[in-house]
Amino acid sequence: MKVDIEMGTAGRAAAMLDLEELLATRLLVQGNSGSGKSHLLRRLLEQSAPWVQQIVIDPEGDFVTLADKFGHVVVDARRTEAELAGIAARIRQHRVSAILNLEGLDVDQQMRGAATFLNALFDADREFWYPVLVVVDEAQLFAPAVGGEVADDARKASLGAMTNLMCRGRKRGLAGVIATQRLAKLAKNVAAEASNFLMGRTFLDIDMARAADLLGMDRRQAEMFRDLARGNFVALGPALSRRPLPIAIGAVETSARSVSPKLTPLPDTVDDVENLILTPSPEEMRQPVRRHRPPAPAATADIMAQLARSTPEQEPTPETVLQEVDEAEREATITSIVREMIDERDVAFQTDSVLFQDFLVRCRIRRLQGGAVGLPEFRRRLAIAKARVDDDLAAGEPWQRALGLSASLPDDLQSVFLIVAKAAIAGENCPSDMALARAYGTHSSRRARRLLAYFEEQDVAVVRSDFQGRRIVALPDLGCETAPGDPDAQDGPHTEAAE
């Protein structure tokens, strides 16, 4: 279905945007502060609200006013990662337009919150891949071209989520619309995936040159970007125009909470202005002023005696009040928590970061003794637990060798290898494609077969078939192989539909 929405005017004609084409080709908006980017995004959101689900990543809380007129759900980002991921999954499931309000968080927290939310949208089940317009304001914050004064893990997570949105989101129904103040500050691999552009006023030479390159204009024509008025942009792209087209963005129905500063008259001069400023009000007088009492001066004799000593007196070491940690009990608690997690239905398709946050919460509830478990150790424990090995097999020497072999593989492949190794050591049927895919965190049976091919390339496994087409996986380093198993079997309580 072709839907054209009116973005404004191009000369005397209406400037139209093909919404269906936009969903397939994405949009990049660029302009300095005050050029009208937020006004443009608001116009786009208002005009397309009746036609498509919308999700807004809002770092300043400017777009929350859309909720009053268009029914968007405002999600306060001051939550745990597990809560944000669950909300994002339900938003895709129920096709509700929403605004992720990141206002009030520092930059690190904004990047982590946006990354968790976008990754959960990206990881939604295939049955919920409906078209969604994902608008990210101030995109240079979430996909910076270079590292800044933020934690490296937060920057990598946010940049990865933005790259997934712009590079791989189309097949999942996610259409990225990103707005930035400066193209030079935006990661190139994120900006390069947009096919539609709306370039506003900018003054720096490097930004004007990049804008001209993206629009296919001569470098000498880049000077025009300095002369653009507020709310005027140059459009190009299959959803807008095949040639660079100057347009003026139309009016909007809602307004942002933050507006441009306006000059207002100063108040009338008060006669005794000095006393007004320097004299506290009665309310301030009633508030007690807390002053730290200075320490009493030391006696001169004490100071001389202290200097005369050749070595300072050793203060007595206080007796420890910490309770000794029972390592056996601690290990049993961690093992119990991980096993509880893998028994839940949706754990196979959640990201490691979300599962790790859930794990930490469970540890606090159980009052786990000792230091916290780190993410690498948690991933290792989760991979081992997915194999569901009983105590007798776990105590055997073949399983210990299998654990050693798995440690040399990438973290995300260890659970798949250990499931195959467990079947080989116990003489069980070879796991099906869906069982291996579930261990990897995907619904794709083809990917499971590619994982076995990767094991063959690394010389840790040999895959063959018997005369009935059943699969057998041999592990030469362990000296054992699985029993023949049907690769297309739909077994297991958590099996999902194959891709």
UniProtKB/TrEMBL annotation:
InterPro entries hit by this protein: AAA+_ATPase, ATPase_Atu1862_pred, HerA-like, HerA_central, P-loop_NTPase
Chain intervals for the UniProt region annotation (Disordered): 478-499
AAA+ ATPase domain sequence ranges: 23-212
SMART domains hit by this protein: AAA
Pfam entry (one): DUF87
Stored PANTHER family: HELICASE MJ1565-RELATED
UniProt-recorded name of the protein: DUF87 domain-containing protein
Organism in which the protein naturally occurs: Mesorhizobium marinum
Biological classification of the source: Bacteria, Pseudomonadati, Pseudomonadota, Alphaproteobacteria, Hyphomicrobiales
